[in-house]
Design a protein that fits this description.
CATH superfamily of the largest domain in chain B: Medium-chain alcohol dehydrogenases, catalytic domain
Domain Alcohol dehydrogenase-like N-terminal (chain B): 25-156
Strand content of chain A: 25-35%
Structural class of chain A: alpha+beta
Oligomer: heterodimer
Low-confidence stretches of chain B: none
Structural class of chain B: alpha/beta
Order of helices and strands of chain A: HHHEHEEEEEEHH
CATH architecture of the largest domain in chain A: 2-Layer Sandwich
Shape of chain B: globular
CATH topology of the largest domain in chain B: Quinone Oxidoreductase, Chain A, domain 1
Pfam family, one (chain B): ADH_zinc_N
InterPro entries (chain B): ADH-like_C (IPR013149), ADH-like_N (IPR013154), ADH_Zn_CS (IPR002328), GroES-like_sf (IPR011032), NAD(P)-bd_dom_sf (IPR036291)
CATH topology of the largest domain in chain A: Alpha-D-Glucose-1,6-Bisphosphate, Chain A, domain 4
Keywords (chain B): Metal-binding, Oxidoreductase, Zinc
Protein name (chain B): Alcohol dehydrogenase GroES domain protein
Number of strands of chain A: 7
Order of helices and strands of chain B: EEEHEEEHHEEEHHEHEHEHEHHEHEHEHE
């Protein structure tokens, strides 16, 4: 009897910590989304990664953001998209975590070089054959659950983002949510970069996530490029 | 190679185009030995399916011989004789793994068009518009088959093409149409449309336990075929009111299940037909729902409508009150060929099914324009054309 109840106790303790972990993750997600709504993903991500200062960080950033919006500069572009992939989270997390894999399904990226655990160098295709580059740091990394990153000082395009892997209900695999934000810079680059993700950023990100899903589920990305037609 | 290319409404041409090549590891190249014109190709031919582009190779019902395989295909080899399902499934997504292949998540590379229009992405279909993938079609000498390691069915060498070709599309479509009716012993099933799909739906309905099958069409040769091969009682809706006739033939109840094997170019009679034809010509509705309306009113209370005829967009003046108050069940969709093809092949090998009776015309690929014309206009008693590349 005693040992049974002891087992129960230890089980419920495990459950409690599991619940707690998810609660913090969901709470964190909520903070991020709140940060987004208020205007700055990076602020929210940084605050989350830093812990403790979450509320202050988010509000402070949003104040700066509001000030910037008030004087009409740095209108950030934000996109979010979710897709369900018929694979376990750890597999998807592993592939994504190596940022050098991202250009395989993200057409707007030319290459990503990983320098170390934290820092990587990104080159993106910009319209008219141009490209833009930046260094990014991983801000927060929770195995099989969450990765957030942001460009460092001096980036051609100031940007940040996160990807979240969450078990889908009913044995449907993993819900993968991506949120990206970038600030088109002022000056000569502005026109080039304004359309980094095309006319409809949501659709571009949606397409890229769909290609990620194809690659992970089917092992290849469906295509019709290069097939015959009667068009002259 | 030679291929049938769409050049605008009611204009297909046989053109010289480059041969297809392997583009992905799971691809195979098939040399086509037989390819049919499907009733749903007429919707493309007539210009009713959006996002078909000038120069697109069309056609989706085909069989042939494997001539090349990608490095990801281990279960096919050069020289294999195969039948290929018309809808493309990856075999790995949630839907393929639950045998709902025509709802595949991964085969359509241009899914965003469909997502905007329909809210979700369904499987690609060979030669059936860019919304549905933009894959080159089968009315050609060769075709690239993606995800060839799943779905493709190997067939034995000793039966003629005409016995095997239709497990690519028409037979599984008819079979699924009957299966969706959830037929109980003693049921009466009414089938609108006596083309190939309608014929196979009737035969399947009997196999699943229907006591009586009633066929509805307006062409005497099709009704004759339904009588002779599918053992159906028939209604020519140009001679009698189909709704009233169905009531009379079912003791006033109405059929237990109704199968739509017609789709968006349905013909009606009188004012209603005039209304639909005019609205469609003015682009105020995309699809003519005459059969849908008639089924909703004719079906018995609590009955099932099984819709296999293709619809592409929006329909008008649907008697939804009838459907609601009569408690009807609607089931529909592009067929999940991969789910049924092995079973149907076995039936053919066992001598339980000989589908070759539907073929009325066999023509060389070069005569595709003529074939489309007689099939659309129902000239020369044309019910099913097989093209030989």
């Amino acid at each position: 009897m005693t040992s049974t109840s002891g087992d129960k106790l230890s089980t419920s303790q495990t459950e409690a910590s599991e619940v707690e972990r998810w609660a913090s993750l969901i709470g964190g997600g909520a903070m991020v989304l709140m940060g987004l709504r208020q205007g700055s993903l990076r602020g929210a991500l940084t605050a989350l990664a830093g812990g403790g200062l979450i509320y202050q960080g988010a509000t402070k950033q949003s104040t700066i953001q509001q000030a910037q919006e008030a004087i009409g500069i740095n209108q950030p572009i934000k996109v979010e998209k979710t897709v369900t992939i018929n694979k376990p989270a750890d597999e998807l997390y592993r592939y994504w975590h190596n940022f050098e894999n991202l250009p395989t399904f993200m057409k707007h990226l030319k290459s990503v070089n990983v320098y170390n655990e934290k820092r990587s160098h990104w080159i993106a295709n910009a319209p008219l054959g141009n490209s833009v580059e930046w260094d990014a740091d991983i801000l927060e990394d929770r195995e099989n659950e969450f990765i957030s990153w942001a460009s460092v000082e001096g980036a051609d395009v100031d940007n940040s983002g996160f990807v979240r892997f969450k078990k889908a209900p009913g044995d449907r695999g993993t819900e993968v949510k991506v949120v990206l934000e970038y600030n088109p810079p002022g000056g000569a680059l502005a026109a080039t970069v304004a359309k980094l993700f095309g006319e409809e950023p949501e659709q571009q990100i949606g397409d890229e996530l769909r290609r990620f899903k194809m690659l992970m589920e089917a092992g290849e990305i469906a295509t019709t490029e290069g097939q015959p037609s009667g068009r002259s | 190679m030679k291929a049938v290319c769409w050049n605008g409404a009611n204009d297909v041409r046989v053109q010289s185009v480059p041969d297809p090549t392997i583009l992905n590891p799971r691809d195979a190249i098939i040399k086509i030995t037989s390819t049919a014109i499907c009733g749903s190709d007429l919707h493309i031919y007539g210009g009713y399916i959006p996002t078909v582009q000038q120069g697109d190779i069309i056609g989706h019902e085909f069989m042939g011989e494997v001539v090349e395989v990608g490095r990801g295909v281990n279960n096919l080899k050069i020289g294999d004789r195969v039948v290929v399902p018309s809808t493309i499934g990856c075999g790995n997504c949630h839907y393929c793994q639950h045998d709902m292949w025509s709802l595949c998540d991964n085969s359509n590379p241009k899914g965003w068009i469909e997502e905007k229009l329909f809210g979700n992405i369904t499987s690609a279909i060979y030669g059936y518009s860019h919304m549905l993938g933009g894959y080159a079609g089968a009315q050609a000498e060769y075709i690239r088959v993606p995800f060839a390691d799943v779905g493709v069915v190997k067939v034995p060498p000793d039966l003629p093409d005409e016995m095997l070709l239709f497990i690519s599309d028409a037979i599984p479509t008819g079979y699924m149409g009957a299966e969706l009716c959830d037929i109980q012993p003693g049921d009466t099933v009414a089938v609108w449309g006596c083309g190939a799909v309608g014929q196979f739906a009737m035969i399947s309905a009997y196999m699943m336990g229907a006591e009586k099958v009633i066929a509805i069409d307006r062409f005497p040769e099709r009704l004759e075929m339904a009588k002779k091969f599918a053992k159906a009682e028939v209604i020519n809706y140009e001679e009698v009111n189909a709704g009233e006739a169905l009531k009379e033939m079912t003791g006033g109840r109405g059929p237990d299940a109704c199968i739509d094997a017609v789709g968006l170019e349905a013909h009606g009679v009188g004012l209603e037909d005039f209304y639909d034809q005019t609205k469609q010509k003015l682009r105020l509705e995309t699809d003519r729902p005459h059969v849908l309306r008639e089924m909703m009113v004719a079906c018995r209370k609590g009955g099932t409508l099984s819709i296999m005829g293709v619809y592409g967009g929006f329909v008008d003046k649907i008697p939804f009150g009838a459907a609601f108050n009569k408690g009807l069940t609607f089931r529909m969709g592009q067929m999940h060929g991969q789910k049924y093809m092995h079973l149907l092949l076995q039936m053919i090998l066992d001598g339980k099914l000989d589908p070759s009776f539907v073929v009325t015309h066999q023509l060389p690929l070069e005569q595709a324009p003529h074939a489309y014309h007689i099939f659309q206009q129902k000239k020369d008693n044309c019910i099913k054309v097989v093209l030989k590349p």
